[in-house]
Specification:
Elements: E1 4-9, H1 16-32, E2 34-39, E3 52-55, H2 64-77, E4 81-84, H3 86-98, E5 118-134, H4 139-143, E6 148-158, H5 160-168, E7 172-176, E8 184-186, E9 193-196, H6 212-222
Parallel strand pairs: 1-2, 1-3, 3-4, 4-9
Antiparallel strand pairs: 5-6, 5-7, 7-8, 8-9
């Protein structure tokens, strides 16, 4: 279906992750019929006019408060959402704060605390391809059946305690990995609110096929 649109929410830079997103954009338009537009986190724009929102890597964001407020609106409003890397970290923070009433903080931006929900990784995954293992029975396992190497550019992730709190409230762990308790999270009570730590768009500049996670997001946007 033509005429659909997705906001790429993030602060565009020359980082490889953002260059790969730019390489993917024509493919999404031509193959999926979905136009994409960058929206800076501090732009103050209304995201409701878009058919979907992708919170892209690149945290901390220029306006963290705006990002967190937007996530609450998107999650409660049913707008299709994909969050990758920093997008997943901030989706975890928002849910813990808004739904579970937790005083959830991020070690990258709240260095003075010791009880962070988002914590430094023991081994940084900056520019590292690491195995992603779909969890049987999850939605993600329906899109990706076998383990694969996913590219990462991250040094922080949700703590095991945070993942347990989310799971106790109905959030599904869609994939795990050797370095991460959760590679994919599927949030409840929403048609498509899915996040990943691996970056599914890496490889677009080399002609890689649209990743099944992104393809599933595009399907949700076109509904």
């Amino acid at each position: 279906m033509a005429g659909r649109s997705v906001a790429l929410v993030g602060d565009r830079s020359e980082h490889r992750s953002h260059r790969e997103l730019d390489a993917l954009r024509p493919r999404l338009r031509e193959d999926c019929g979905v136009d994409t537009r960058w929206v800076a986190t501090d732009a103050g724009g209304d995201l409701s006019s878009f058919d979907g929102v992708w919170l892209v890597p690149g945290s901390p964001y220029a306006d963290d408060d705006a990002v967190l407020a937007a996530l609450t609106t998107i999650r409660r409003g049913g707008q299709p959402f994909l969050g990758t890397c920093g997008g997943m970290q901030y989706a975890v923070l928002e849910y813990l704060r808004t739904e579970l009433g937790a005083d959830a903080t991020h070690a990258e931006t709240d260095a003075g605390r010791t009880d962070h929900a988002i914590v430094p990784l023991a081994c940084s995954l900056q520019g590292v391809a690491s195995e992603v293992r779909p969890v049987p029975g999850s939605r993600f396992a329906g899109w990706v059946r076998e383990p694969f190497d996913g590219m990462h550019f991250c040094s922080f992730a949700a703590s095991p305690e945070s993942i347990r709190a989310l799971a106790d409230d109905g959030v599904i762990v869609g994939a795990t990995g050797p370095e991460l308790a959760a590679e994919v999270l599927e949030f409840p009570h929403h048609p498509f609110y899915v996040t990943s730590m691996f970056q599914p768009h890496i490889g677009a500049s080399e002609g890689a096929a649209v990743h099944p996670l992104v393809a599933a997001f595009m399907d949700a946007v076109r509904v």
